[in-house]
């Protein structure tokens, strides 16, 4: 399994149709929660003061991660930064 | 309780006495593990390719976080970036 | 209580309906003043030459701060940077 | 009176004589507290996780501010950023 | 009196009505020249190759400077950076 | 298998003992070539005008990549940036 | 022959006609694959989490590379960074 | 005549011999004042909170400016940024 | 005579009328070639992979350079960076 | 033939032996002039106010350019940025 640190900054265009907007956000939530329940997306936090999140992904490969991210309903409106993680020598778990 | 995302980039000077160096790293590890076991420092990951970590702290306050960080044995040799986190609306936990 | 340093850079789109614009700015002012009077937002200054402010928030938690910021009427048109503060050892207060 | 927002990042060289170091820090504290008591330096906060502070100065002029900053005992070891402030239209004070 | 160094980068939107554009630029010029004649805006230079200027303001306070800048007819289309100046020890004047 | 794009910028301190320097560079070369022959490090190019390389790693996991990078003889003197890659939809291979 | 490292970040405007968009992407793919088969564009990888690629070009000259890049069907919607490469002293090939 | 805007950030090494330091600063002052009196260096201001200055040079050519700057006694310890200026269309002088 | 190094990054808006676009580009070419033939614009190169150029100007003054750049038909769609040059001590010409 | 735009920023360490310093600079000059006379290094200019140059190289390949740059006597003390150039469509030569 591979751990990745992902930051997503969301920037939905103002002129997006409000219904499309609401629908896309709802789809994003369902999509994220499905992956959280499947254990692929174990952590998601909101950055205080921003429409952004910090997430941890636990996937089989970087290929799987790209597949997941590319299919995020909000992907066209997000700036995504990926950082590979590994176990830290001081980690007690 | 307050969640914080912390990135630490370590840069120990080359001319630090090797014994002091080894001792400081050992103290850092013990200090970190004590806080991990106390639940204050629930996550620590190594960033691939770097002498850096991404950590999550779960503390009573920002004051407590500063206290913890300022007393890190490697504090004088680290660049630390702190970001306040909050629960994400899509989080299933 | 937790202290946060917040910088807000406002960038209202030129094509926002003038009435909506005026109304949003009025709501922002009322919202800010209510929080100032409640002691949650003790300081707000204008940065000279910019449509930006530096504010100090004194809140129960980072969660409360996010709640406040996310509900700013101008939130969709602002870039917000948050920095956690703690008491300084030289502070005489 | 003029308000200034000042950020100071301290970086004392490792090879500074420990006595000189301790003495300089003590002088800095005394100097700061004297100015705080005189009302020139009304606010000073520590940035969480950093050997840095955010300060507010309330001085007669930018000339006086420079005089104050240039004479900080830690001046040679600090990076200082100054930003002029003015009253915000929403300020209730 | 207080001296400030101000850089203004102008970026007028392409779709601004040409008459409004011409009128705004004319107002900006008149406004600037009035302040120059009043001694408040002693220097203004064009940066070679850019629609930008470097200006020196000589005002009673930062508050007055903000008042002046905020009322620039081109303010909504400018990025402004302010830097406080003070007399240099080598200045012969 | 996982593909990673790695940039290494080498900055060997001037005062490193010349023998240690030569030895470390020789070890680095042997270490790199062993990994190239094992198929773990399929590509390495020099960036023109710099003491830097762009490398492609083909490893079992990010954990293995970190292990490899952390043990580079020149690791203490390098700045390393890692980027996860995946197959491109237009790739004909 | 000359090797170049090229990063392309794609940013297709939202309001591009969907048919034009699909057609342009199809043309880009065909164009890229033709050059890959001709040996001019030996490597293309997707950067995980981004609508971006890292490519290696093996061309007769920088002039030929510019010709290729300038004629990319997606050229108007891409930010391209070029870096000249040369053989690395440790390369075993 | 040609006008140039020059910013100089001074960073004298801590280990410079104190006498050499004092002497170099004295030479710098004399050199600057001579050029000010000759009309070549009409303006010099201190940036508040920094060991930096903003200067205006009025020279025959960029060649003359380089000659002047390269011979500054503090040149080896300064970071210098030069920007060519021209008359502004709104300048009343 | 004064030498300047100029980088121009062109960014023509997508919605510019195609005829206006073609005409502006044609005018730009004619304007540039006239100045090249007059010896004012001795060098112009395309940066590989970009709609950008690096140019050398040989003009009487910075004022003349600004005049030339400000009147470039593509000026409203370009980002221009100017750097003053002088003869290098190793130049054999 | 291939054209490259190269910027070199020189930063010779203060503690370099003065004789070694003088000798290295002399070697650099001779090396540069030899390449200029051979037509490989057709242009070299000093950037005003900096110990930096902008150079144009006209070489057979990027490999040859790297060979030349890597063997510059001042290479260990320089930061070098390389940019590939190609003929501009408006060039009259």
TrEMBL record, chains A, B, C, D, E, F, G, H, I, J:
GO terms for molecular function: muconolactone delta-isomerase activity. The keyword Cell membrane does not apply. The keyword Isomerase applies. Gene3D superfamilies: Dimeric alpha+beta barrel. Pathway: Aromatic compound metabolism; beta-ketoadipate pathway; 5-oxo-4,5-dihydro-2-furylacetate from catechol: step 3/3. Residues 3-91 form the Muconolactone isomerase domain. It catalyses: (S)-muconolactone = (4,5-dihydro-5-oxofuran-2-yl)-acetate. Keywords: Aromatic hydrocarbons catabolism, Isomerase. Its EC number is 5.3.3.4. Homodecamer. Belongs to the muconolactone Delta-isomerase family. This is Muconolactone Delta-isomerase. It comes from Rhodococcus artemisiae. The lineage of its organism: Bacteria, Bacillati, Actinomycetota, Actinomycetes, Mycobacteriales.
């Amino acid at each position: 399994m591979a751990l990745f640190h992902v930051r997503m900054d969301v920037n939905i265009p103002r002129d997006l149709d409000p219904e499309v907007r609401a629908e896309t956000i709802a789809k994003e939530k369902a999509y994220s929660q499905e992956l959280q329940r499947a254990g692929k997306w174990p952590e998601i936090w909101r950055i205080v003061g921003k429409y952004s999140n910090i997430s941890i992904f636990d996937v089989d490969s970087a290929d799987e991660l790209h597949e997941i991210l590319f299919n995020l309903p909000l992907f066209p409106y997000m700036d995504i930064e990926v950082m590979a993680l590994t176990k830290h020598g001081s980690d007690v778990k």
